[in-house]
Specification:
With about 100 residues, the protein is mainly α. Helix content is about 45%, strand content about 5%. The protein has helices spanning about 40-50, 60-75, 80-95; strands at about 10-15, 30. A two-stranded antiparallel sheet has the order 1-2. Helix 1 (about 40-50) packs across helix 2. The longest helix is centred in the last third of the chain and has 19 residues, at about 80-95. The chain is elongated, with a radius of gyration of 16 Å.
Length: about 100
């Protein structure tokens, strides 16, 4: 978890003529502004994905570049993400009752 910093991420998916049964988002259609993340969140991302050795003593801009390239290289199964979100929302709903 990136703490409150993850709330600043906005992901907007373009609606292109992609087949309905496709499970991955085409490269470049997701827009995430990683520059809004604080340094601590960028460091956590780099450590979590073992990207720390990529640059010694990086600037924020260098960290954003490494994180952005890694983030955009990740494959996404949209159905799995939606299913996981619904399950998490249901768990949260029962916890908050």
């Amino acid at each position: 978890s990136f703490g409150s910093s993850h709330k600043t991420l906005s992901r907007s998916l373009s609606s292109d003529s992609q087949s309905k049964d496709s499970i991955s988002t085409p490269r470049g259609s997701a827009k995430v502004d990683l520059s809004k993340l604080e340094m601590a969140a960028l460091w956590r991302y780099l450590r979590h994905f073992n990207l720390v050795d990529a640059i010694h003593n990086p600037s924020k801009e260098q960290m954003i570049d490494v994180v952005q390239r890694h983030f955009m290289s990740q494959q996404l199964d949209e159905l799995q993400v939606i299913t996981g979100f619904v399950k998490a929302a249901k768990r949260l709903k029962t916890v908050c009752k």
